[in-house]
Amino acid sequence: MVTASKTLATRMIRATAPKGGLDSFLKFCGFIAVIHTVSITAEFLLTGQLHMDHVMRFWVTFFTAAPFVGLTFYAVHRSWLLHKQLVAMASTDVLTGLMNRRAFVAEAARRLSSQDRGFILLVDADHFKRINDSFGHAVGDQCLRAIADRLRAVTPEADIVARIGGEEFGLHVDCAPDDIPALGAHICATIHVDHSDAVAAPLQVTLSVGVAQARPGDTLEQTMHRADHALYRAKQAGRARIMVWRAEVSEAGEMPLGDFGGRISPAVC
After folding, report:
1. What's domain 101-258's superfamily in CATH?
2. Residue 167 catalytic?
3. What does the pLDDT average to over 88-105?
């Protein structure tokens, strides 16, 4: 009941909030017209007659109601802006500016349920704990922001990029299977991160990637589980590479993993 009331209030604010010059003007005129009509109706029902001509009554209604309508519009507009800011804050990772896990799960699940296509990629920074232990969390944060920049740069704008854990990122990309090797090569290429120690060379950060293709009827959780298994195998195989969970079932009943694009030489963090 409470959720339904909040949803109704949000829809009312969204519907009445001014969204531009023309929209504001039309809604203002609409509110004035409604108030004018209510005023005429109330006077007629209470007294049985109208005491002022229509032009005079309109101007009385306008000058009486306009300040309150304007103030109401301002309050609704500010409420709508605040609502959008809160929604953005609730769905954004503060450090990287990417989607957070909650937003990623919601949006990726929606796309999978409507399209049944695309790939889920789980990306993990190699030896990230070593970076934090050796250089501190501030440098670790720099590395996370650099990783976010890399993922944004190589991923089409229409696809989803999110930080879903400490040093783990999630992507949903809608592309052909033949495009995965090139995308993986761009993601896994060494990232050079300058840090506070000007004497030391830039850190060389590499990424491991697990990929699973969405299948009709599968949930996001099932697809992410396959991608996570592929990521685990990429780590086992030496890191700094992409491993793809293949849909073909081998004679042994196992789902073998393939390495699209071959081995990418690992870099030292």
Report:
1. Reverse transcriptase/Diguanylate cyclase domain (3.30.70.270)
2. yes
3. 91
